[in-house]
Predict the structure.
Amino acid sequence: MMIWVILMMMTALAVMAVLWPLSRAVAVAGQTDPNTQFYRDQIAEIDRDRERGTLLPEEAEAAKAEAARRLLRASGLKEGEAFAVGEPALRRRRAVSTLALSVLPIVALAIYGAYGSPHLLSEPPGAQLRQGAGNGAGNLDLGTAVAQIEAHLAKQPQDGRGWDVVAPVYLRMGRTEDAVKAYESALRYLGRDATRLANYGEALVISRDGMVTAEAQAAFQEALAIDNSSAKARLYLARAAEQDGQMAKAKAEYQAILSASPPDAPWRSFVQDQIARIDGNQGGPIQEVGERPDANAIAGMVQGLANRLDAQGGSPDEWARLMRSYVVLGQRDKAVAATKRAREALAQDAAGLRTIDAMAQDLKLTESSP
Amino acid sequence: MTRKIRTRKTRRLTLIAVAGCVLAVALGLVLYAMNDTIVFFNSPADVQAKNVAPGTRFRLGGLVKEGSVRRGDKQHVEFEVMDAQSSIHVQYQGLLPDLFREGQGIVAEGRLEASGLFRADTVLAKHDENYMPREVADALKRQGHWQGETHPPQQAQQN
Amino acid sequence: MLVEAGHFALALALGLSLIQFVVPLWGARANDPVLMSVAPTTALAVLACVGFAFLTLTYAYISSDFSVLNVVENSHSAKPLIYKISGVWGNHEGSMLLWVLILCLFGGVVALAKNTVPMRLQANTLAVQAAITVAFLLFILMTSNPFRRLVPAAAEGQDLNPLLQDPGLAIHPPLLYVGYVGFSISFAFACAALIDGRIDAVWARIVRPWTLAAWCFLTLGIAMGSYWAYYELGWGGWWFWDPVENASLMPWLAGTALVHSTVVMEKRDALKVWTILLAILTFSLSLLGTFLVRSGVLTSVHSFAVDPERGTFILGILVIFIGGSLALFAWRAPLLQQGGLFAPISREGALVVNNLFLASACATVFIGTLYPLALEVLTGDKISVGAPFFNATFLPLIVPLLLLLPLGQTLAWKRGNLLGTVQRLYAVFGASILVVLAVLAFTYGGPVLAPFGIGLGVYLVLGSFNEIVTRSWTRGKPLSVAWIKARGLPRSTWGTVFAHAGVGLVVLGISATAWDVESLGTMKPGDRIGAGPYQLRLERIVPRQEANYREDAALFRVDRNGRELGTVESMKRLYVTRGMPTTEAGILTFGLSQVYVSLGEMQPNGSVGVRLYYKPLVLLIWLGAVVMAFGGALSLTDRRLRIAAPARNRAAPPIAPVPAE
């Protein structure tokens, strides 16, 4: 509502700017005529020039006569111009006032109505919308924004920047497979630079629920080949070593990262935790690298993995990871159910069944146990 | 009085004559330069279709063929410029523009040799995030090869 | 909310401009001072509205309000503050808003010049000015609206084109626009004079400072843009005869002619009709430049046809204003009074020759810029008209002009004595020829034409200052007397001398490019490369990560004959958001010369392509332009140019009789 008052006040001020000179008396007519003034100045200058000796007396006389002639002509013109006064002038002024009062608001409102966004006036301002997009409450808006970008990309799939923008959003929304595809497109159209490759690898890792696959490893290695200072790529490669069971190598990598990174790097404490963890129990749940997602995000990822495995099936390792994730999250009943589904899905795969059994044993998830 | 009018007239005539001379010289220079210094733009398909004579200076535009870029020492570069129909082998020595890369559009200026090799002395890539020099984009559009970039390109460059 | 208020202010400015267009014209016709006095107040109100709109857009950029489409497309929250601000005009929509803001700013200054400009002239001028404002406000609101909103707001912006993230580009467009748009005032004054059917010396006296100010800014703007291209594009070139550059060169040439013809008109009351025509043509060329750059017609005739909205709109504006003003000229110019007489050999005659050559040179640039576009539209053939064309047409027209320049500057008004003038320049001729011979001998076997260029530059500089010497120094008198006399010369004389000497410096700088040395190489850390007397050693290549880009910086150590002179760094940058690579040239300045190094591609084996230039005296090119603009500014501060301000009675020392100036 406030904004409408402001807009009305602006309009009123604009109208005033037109009406104010109309309301003034004809005092303005008293202005000295610059034309005659100019020739007077010129004559004065000729006199000065003669005194200084830059003009010969006879030249000065001729110039002065010429200027004086022009001065006469100019003042003659001025006398001929009587300023309009009286009834017609009043009518004209009234017409102009009406014009200002009507045309100004109409033009301004019509143009603003046609090209502006007045509906936004009553809504919360843009800054709030933007903040909302970041957290859970803004998911709806984020969804529409993503839909818009998707519609744009459907028309112009070769717009690499669009893919680059949408990929991290997908990741945040838990659409990890889409994020991977988006990064692939961005890499194709914008080129393979280190940051993008590292982000791509990270998306791959998250989409495999934390597993640094060979594909992701290749991406990180390529990123490092371009820019060996990419902390993200090095962290994930360290983690890959850890996942491969090469604890010593992983630890060395982590320490190398630590020594290479500036004292205020945001990942320092995380890397120190990792080293401490390797030094300590050499086990425990592996956490996400980088910005550690909160419990909700983990739950979402686990749910994503479960959905995928239910729909498309998966490797024994992936099933095992799902079981383990449920246990970590404290959802033993779900873990038991997952074990059961895994056994059904891998019925043909003897080796796979053994993996599942081993994991179930590890986690004490045997069906016989209560 | 008549003398004054006559001087006014003769002076005006001199002025017009001098102006005419200068303008004639300018026109002559322009016509001469038009014959001599103007460079045509061709895509690889145009080069074949028009049978461009070897030794003619022209601008060659198209996409850098994927996997065709070979670098020698002393910054010798060889690559192929292609369009939908054909491709031409290009040799160049010097620094390539920032936006030169495989699969992107470029314009090379130079001469065609009898062997069919194009020896370029300038390689341009448009400073524009779409990586597409306009002649190349137009040529490819003519061939129905490229649909990208429908939003008006930004020319904030220098103005 | 603020953004919407800014948008509304723009709509309001449109309404106000309409009134500012209609009412003063009506008032001037009916000779009603009250109606005419509406012009200044509305002009100020329009300025307030457009200024407010511009501020709100700037605020949206600074606060990274990604609910504004324009901000999303051209900004990024991680961008440094200065580029957030310069991003406002680093794009089409914002730069058009800046264009209109400057237009209104000039209108506001005319509105405030109440006591110096005759009322009718002021009313008519502001009305013409308002017509231009209306056209461009409509253009902005309908086709290039910077206030379009994005619902819902984007999470992050797409960043400004990295090439534009540069301090040079932050100030280049405003300078250039002040130049372009400044000529709109000359145009508006010319149209006002035609509408009124009256033109006299006071007109020239009023118009001249405006034209001169616009010319100074345009000169600086072009120089700035040229220097930017030199160090940012990484090619070591400073002028490319690119259509975008030509678009600013054409108004500059016409504006230079205009600055000179207004002198004739002010001093001698001659060349009136031509001056009016030139004022119209100069602004028309500014409009044409805006059209070429803003419609996308240069980027692609094709894209112009596909997205015709903007292009056709500006084309419409172009046709209406150029066609309209020329029609007005054809209709009213015969009514104007004949000007004064002068002999062909006189200062006026020399200035006519100046105008003639500048206009012809401008015409060749015009043809070279537009011919390819016309040909493409007509036959579909694509040609490129580049440096060879302009070297073959532009230079032969400019060189005679430069040769005549010191002569014209020395000639007397009304009736000159050619022989006497030449005699006064004997020393200058002699010195210049000596310089040519010395340079030829010194650089034997090098470029042949360049020494003559150097000679021409020296001739221009000396020829300009010769005026001061001959007017203040007499044989046998001590130098201190000459100095006092020289200081007593009017500032407009000094301005002329500096501006012309600036031209000479530019010629020197350009001629010296013939001695540029270029070397290419692929280098690993520890390798050496040389150019001219300088040797560079690649020390190391360091990767770096900044807020919005990543770069590989190569550090070079520079020495000359084994003596170490310092280090220079050249960078290969990648702007992450746009995925766009750029090269940052490393430049080390020694006096007026520079060593310029730029990086090529990083090779997989750790080596890097390097292009190295030694550019002797290259800084003179831009320094000369700055000196030219300084001369213009000096001339502006001369009291005699300020309108109706009573001339100061300075106790001037007696001066030997010289031609009236």
Observations:
- The interface with chain B takes residues 156, 158-159, 161, 191 of chain A (CB under 8 Å).
- Chain A has 17 helices and no strands.
